[in-house]
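Give me the 3D structure for AcrR family transcriptional regulator.
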Amino acid sequence: MASKAKAPVVRLEASSADQLLNATSALMIERNTVDITFADIAEKSGLNAALIRYHFGSKLGMFMALLERDAGGTFDDLERLVKADMDAGQKLRHHVHGIIKVYYRYPYMNRLVAALAVETDSETARFISERFSRPLAAAQKAILEQGEAEGIFRKIDPMLFYFSLIGMCDHLFIGRHSLRYAFGVEDIDDDLRKAYAVHVTDLLMRSVLVKPETDA
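Predicted structure for AcrR family transcriptional regulator (216 residues):
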């Protein structure tokens, strides 16, 4: 009996827009900077630099598209976390681990947001802040207020908490030179990422809990 022919496997290649975004992301990670040029991106992607303007209008447009690609999908997860049926302590732990996982994948994210906010017109800077900073701050505020209502969190200023948490989560990934020269660590692997997430979470929980000694 003749065997049934198998359908051919179709491999879809990334579009040129995706290739440009992937190249930009890779360069920022490799060089530990967001200061890259059209020529850098073209060389890394193997594509003509004119395609940046074709797909995104400008480098600013491409950088904003990169931010949306990297972070845009996380806000739905954040909203689900805030609405989840769990206590505020659990939510905060999930939130910290989630932020560090995002920075592990995209260590340039905060620097790119800051660079765009400083170097572009006020309307663009406002859009970036509202799109990326406000949802994080609002979610954290909701979790803190829930924890206070449950009697497990002290009263915490949400604004100060936001800057403290983001700074703690981000600093490992922008401090690669310190890692190398002060601690002999050449790369941030997944084990270090997980250890850092546990460390930051424990420090943070001890600072916000009414009774830290009762937290497992």
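The CA atoms of residues 4 and 195 lie 50 Å apart. Let me know if you want a second pass.
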